[in-house]
Amino acid sequence: MIVPLLLGAGIGLGLMVIAAGIWPPKPSLADELAALHAPPTSAPLASFAAPAETAGWAARLGRPAVPLLEAAGLPRTSVRADLAVLGRPPQLHLAEQAATALAGLFLPPLVAALTALASLHWGWTLPLWIALALAAGGFLLPDLAIHTEAGRRRAEFRHALSSYLDLVVISLAGGAGVQAALHSSAQIGTGWANHRIRDALQEAALTPGLTPWQALGRLGAELGITDLTELAATVSLAGTEGAKIRTSLRARAASLRGHLLADLDAAGASATERMSIGVVALFAAFLLFLAYPAISHVLTGL
Predict the structure, then answer these.
(1) Which residue range or ranges hold the Type II secretion system protein GspF domain (predicted)?
(2) Which region among 1-10, 82-91, 148-157, 225-234 has the lowest average model confidence (pLDDT)?
(3) Which of 93, 102, 226, 295 is in the most buried spot, having the most CB atoms within 10 Å?
(4) Cβ atoms 84, 223 nearer than 8 A
(5) Is 131:102 a contact under the CB 8 Å cutoff?
């Protein structure tokens, strides 16, 4: 009797540790405010890449399977865009996918072997199917995790892009040229989004034949941010056909702010709906508590 209890407690503790690693606790408000006022580092892009020596155990465990996954055409294009937003190497992501798949594959046989010591036999069919299901789920779990995080990063980039457009419009109103306004406005903002815009413009300045708007278009395609590619198309149109760039950029900034406000309203409405789920669950449990004596009496009488 004690052995099954210890095995169950160990499995439950392991599941809690796995859940804590997948869904870490959110930082406090004080930490978030301190991060906002933290001074910028001298190398803002240094945190985008994870060197091999600082990679976690999952990356080190799944590293041998990376060439096979790359030969199979992984990661997909959408996953590559998410990794570009997060500044994470594709090889590191593939190694983590391989490690989580192996963990899901070997967990059910290990549990079955431990329970067999307590005279609980499950056969081999059920652990096999569970192992295959957990392996598939473990392989897809990193994709889902980075997709959610990349969505938050893209929303952050869109907020920074809206401020950047306002600065460009102000520079154009002051008499600056298009390229000068793009470069000077990028030097003002801080944060990873402004650094990526600044690096794209710097690449255009150092590459012969590459215009700043083409560099911004490449960055938008790499990160999967359509607002940036549309901005590049607007600036390119102004550079080749003499459109009213200031009016176009002002309209683009207003449209982007409208989309951001709509997304915030939708997120608030969704959070409100999720808050009502707990009340509905409590009400359903209360009704079940009231109805249980009558139902039990009827069933006992039958």
Answers:
(1) 165-293
(2) 1-10
(3) 93
(4) yes
(5) no
